[in-house]
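Protein modeling request. Please complete all fields; requests missing the sequence field cannot be processed.
Requester role: graduate student
Desired output: 3D structure, token encoding
Chains: 1
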Amino acid sequence: YVSSWQTVYKSDSELQVQIVKDVLENAGYNAVVINLKDHAYKIGMLEVRVSPDAVIPAIKLINEEIKFGHE
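Delivered output (71 residues):
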């Protein structure tokens, strides 16, 4: 079922991705982290994904509730 889930946040920071996932879960959304990093070279992105019906409210929540220093 996760294969149909949509990406709502991307980062190369494991900490930021975990914070986003925690905020979404605390708000009642199921969220998963997909690690797209190359394990040998430690480069690439991590994604937070949610079910298709949660994409718009999840993005809204992320934009309203989460601010990282570089944004």
